Amino acid sequence: MCGEDGCRPLGFLLGLPFAFLALLVSIVGIIVWIVGLLLTLICPCCFCVTLVVEFALELIKAPLHVMEWFTSQIPC
């Protein structure tokens, strides 16, 4: 049975391999974010670099989004 806090341990366990892959993607996102920040400091007029940095931030948040999605898909 599921508690009132909405825990879904099965969804968490099923989502772990995908969260690991998302973690690897987030590491790539961290690298892209650092490079994008350095490019923004060198040339702040480049708007496309700002978009790349924002995309990298979403890649960094990927493991959290994956785990939330998996836990919401599995019923108690």
Description:
The chain crosses the membrane at residues 12-32, 38-57. Keywords: Membrane, Transmembrane, Transmembrane helix. This is Signaling peptide TAXIMIN 1. It comes from Rhodamnia argentea. The chain has 3 helices and no strands. By secondary structure, the protein is mainly alpha-helical. The protein has one domain.
Give the DSSP E fraction (strand runs of 2 or more residues).
under 5%
Order of helices and strands: HHH
Overall shape: it is elongated
Tally the helices. Answer: 3
> Ends: how far apart?
6 Å
Q: Quote the average pLDDT.
A: 75
Contiguous runs where pLDDT drops below 50 for at least 5 residues:
none
**Rg for CA atoms:** 17 Å
Q: What is the total domain count?
A: 1
What class would the helix/strand composition place it in? Answer: mainly alpha
Instruction: Characterize the main sheet.
Output: none
Fraction of helical residues: over 70%
- Overall number of strands: 0
